[in-house]
Queue: 3 jobs
Job 1
Amino acid sequence: MSINPEQLRYSKEHEWLSAPADGVATVGITSHAADALGDVVFVQLPEVGATVTAGETCGELESTKSVSDLYSPVSGEVTEANQDVADDPSLVNSAPFEGGWLFKVKVAEEPSDLLSATEYDAFIES
């Protein structure tokens, strides 16, 4: 059984994307990525108003193990960055699909290569 919410879409870089509401989608990293990173101690998020491009880096996640790039799963304009995560990066580990979301983006174009929860589960198991 998947621990990844069925209503979300996933990238092969381990980000998740909610279905856009009024054109705005929420982005975070998966619990698989959070577990692999270890304890997240610093988050650099894209700035509100910045343009992000699908598949390109838009921030960083620093853990006790390493520093990892944050990729945007879609192209568009950042409408909100999660200040709670900036203030308490451990939310990425403790609640990756709830309070640990990273940013919201007004979607300009959603790529066709995003995975369903079932497809993402198969990807991380391979």
Note: The helical segments are 31-37, 83-87, 91-94, 117-125.
Job 2
Amino acid sequence: MRLAAHPHAVWWLALVSFLESSIFPIPPDVLLIPMALADRRRAFWYAGVCTGASVLGGWAGYAIGYELFEVIGRPIINVYGLQDQFAVFQHTFNEYGAWIVLIKGLTPIPYKLITITAGVTHLDLVTFSIASAISRGGRFFLVVVLLWYFGEPIRTFIERYLTWVTTGVVAAVIGGFVVLRFV
């Protein structure tokens, strides 16, 4: 809360958003929500800062997966003889990677897991970047729209239920695609 009122709060928001996408466990909502409530005129700017910094942080997570996998991950896979299974996993992730990034960027699954996995599997960086911008932007702008429109009363709802609501929406969309595919 002190950081949200700090004169350099936007820089702190960008830093937390960046780090949360690659290594940091705390989501930027802890700064975004109080900042958006304190200055609703700049709320959409804050969501844009979160989105941009999160995508850049996603690139850092991608780089971690891309670079450190060869040093640490591949030798482990080789020791256990899992080369074939990993090849199948990599193909599946790359085939559905855009959807995985889009969906998981909105859910409570830590985004850093998706960014690092995308790097490990060498998901196309352009696809990864576009899907990241859409999913992370959707997430942060949804929070800001709710805060901007409803103000302080929606804060408790967001803090308690936003994760469940976005997870429910994602599940409904996936369910709809499954029904359409098999009908």
Note: DSSP finds eight helices and no strands in the chain.
Job 3
Amino acid sequence: MIAPQDLQALNRLLQLEYRSLPVYLEYADPWHRHEDQEAVEALRHAAQDHQETARRLAEFIYEHDGAVDPGEFPMEFTDLHDLDMEYLLPLVVEAERRTIAEMEQLVQGIQSPEAKTLAEEVLGAERAHLDRFEALLKRPAGTG
């Protein structure tokens, strides 16, 4: 049996994934030039991964008799419609850093080995997305 506080932590992980900035930007349709295509693809990949991860977390929570709360997008995301990728990419990196910091705290508090393993997988995937976004951010403008 998974402790209620572990299910609560997994639910927060689900919210962080399902209501992430990359997922939001799937709907906000960032403006981009041809040179931004790699960043656009990284954003799409992260959004798809976040949605799949949220689904996995929801299934785990349901299987352990928990209630899923997908949450809502943060209100500050509403100002990000139709903005340029060059402007958005640093915001995505900062959002990913904040998400990872919160995830690290959540993972530390999880007691169930099964839940902890899943949470650590989520955290690892999030770190990989951050690495990709940071690499794109370091590239000189106009290099793809």
Note: DSSP finds five helices and no strands in the chain.
